[in-house]
Hints:
This protein has 247 residues and is α/β, with parallel strands linked by helices. The chain has helices at 3-11, 29-35, 40-61, 80-100, 119-132, 148-164, 175-181, 227-238; strands at residues 21-25, 65-72, 106-111, 138-146, 192-195, 214-216. It has a single domain, classed as 3-Layer(aba) Sandwich (Undecaprenyl pyrophosphate synthetase). The termini are far apart.
Amino acid sequence: MSFFKKNIVKNSINSESLPAHVAVIMDGNGRWAKKRGLSRNAGHQEGARTVRKIVECAYDIGIKYITMFAFSSENWSRPKEEVDELMELCLDYLKDAENETSDKDIRVRVIGNKEGLSQEMKDQIQKIEERTINKKRMTMVIALNYGGRQDILQAAAKIAEDVVIGKLKQNEITESELDKRLYTDGIPDPDLLIRTSGEMRISNFLIWQCTYTEFYFPTVLWPDFTEKHFKEAIIDYQKRSRRFGGL
C-alpha cells in the first residue's frame, strides 16, 4: 500500500468519536502457525508481537481502554504443554510490559481469577499494577484466566455474602451493585469488540459488559493483524448508529 493510501486510512478516523474501550479476542495464532508448518507456540509468540503493535497503535490514536483476551478460563483444557507455554508467554509479556510502558502514560490492569495462577505470575501482576496505577492516558486490560460466566458468578457470590452480613439489602441489588463486584469494576463497557480469524462468537468474553457492544469480525488471523486492520475496525465502528435500545 502506498504512503498516500495509508494516510487516507489514518485521516478517515474521527478523533471526536473514538470508541472509549476496545476489546480484542486474539484468535488464529494456532492456525497461523499450522499454515507455516510451525508449532502452536510459535504462533502464540508471533501473536504476542502483534499485541505490542496494536496496543501502541491504540495509544497513538487516543483509545482510552483496550482489553486483550490473553487466556480464558476454558483454555486450561488444552494440552498441558501448550498451557505451560501460554502461561510462560503471558508472564514474559507482563515483565516486558513493565519496561515498554515506562515511557508511556499507560496503566496496566489484569482481570480474571488469580487463584489458578503461579505465585510468580501473581507477584508480577501486583508489581505492574502498582507501578502503573497513577497513569491515565490509556488503560491496558489483560484478561487472564478470565471467563464471562465465571465473572458473573463470582460477583453474584459477593452480593450474596454482602446480603448475609447485612452490608447490602435484598431490595438494593441492582445492575450497578453487580457492576461494582465484577472484575471490570471501574472500567467502562466495551464500545467495540474485535475478534480476528473470521470466527463470529465472543466465547465467554465480557458477556455482561458486551450488552450493547459493536462487534467486528475480520477474517485475518491475529498474527497478521496490523495497525491498518485496527484502524479499519475503528473506521467501521464510526459508521454505525448506536441507539442502545432506543430510536
